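R.M. (postdoc): so does anyone remember the format we settled on? I'll just put the structure tokens first.
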């Protein structure tokens, strides 16, 4: 929510907004993180926050409309996995140069670097694995760091157990569709497809890393 709040401050400060134009505010989040399906029954509540989830974004958009704030929330990558975002990038040279300077970690505030084993880090590393882009990001845990700490992580265990079910369509629907029940989404099955492909990316990365 904080990102949207800062984005709204910036959007409503633009010259275009002051001139009465609608301003687009892009979330730019990959589909798997956006949906953030519960990988195991233990990953509920704060472990499965959904601040770019289609329902949350729709509710926030409705609130902005009622408040008369002419800003349109968008996520053009809602139906892409992070690996697909890498592969389909039209400026690969810039991506290769900058991507390892980006921050994905959900626990970086504590260690001032990527932990390498939280779910956002795992999805990040799976995207590099899927796209074959070189990953020079320093990680605290993992093959280049503390592998024992990587293997012992609850996040890694949950990611492995959940992603191993990437071919179980009924299970994926059970963890994706209920969260879409109260919002107007026309392409629910496309979102399920995105979750399936994203989980496959994670599974392929973890299978190779943990073997």
């Amino acid at each position: 929510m904080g990102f949207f709040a800062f984005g709204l401050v910036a959007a409503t400060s633009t010259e275009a907004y002051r001139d009465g134009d609608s301003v687009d505010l892009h979330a730019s989040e990959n589909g798997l993180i956006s949906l953030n399906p519960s990988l195991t029954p233990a990953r509920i509540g704060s472990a499965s926050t959904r601040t770019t989830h289609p329902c949350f974004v729709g509710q926030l958009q409705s609130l902005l409309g009622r408040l008369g704030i002419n800003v349109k929330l968008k996520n053009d990558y809602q139906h892409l996995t992070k690996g697909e975002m890498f592969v389909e990038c039209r400026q690969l040279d810039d991506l290769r140069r900058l991507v390892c300077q980006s921050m994905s970690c959900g626990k970086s505030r504590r260690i001032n670097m990527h932990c390498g084993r939280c779910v956002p880090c795992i999805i990040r590393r799976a995207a590099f694995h899927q796209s074959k882009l070189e990953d020079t990001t320093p990680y605290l845990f993992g093959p280049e760091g503390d592998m024992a700490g990587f293997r012992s992580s609850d996040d890694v265990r949950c990611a492995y157990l959940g992603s191993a079910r990437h071919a179980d369509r009924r299970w994926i629907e059970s963890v994706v569709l209920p969260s879409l029940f109260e919002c107007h989404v026309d392409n629910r099955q496309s979102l399920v497809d995105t979750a399936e492909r994203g989980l496959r990316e994670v599974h392929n990365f973890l299978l190779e890393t943990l073997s």
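R.M.: ...and that's the designed sequence above, right after the tokens. Also worth knowing: Residues 8 and 71 are 7 Å apart (CA to CA). The chain has a mean pLDDT of 92.
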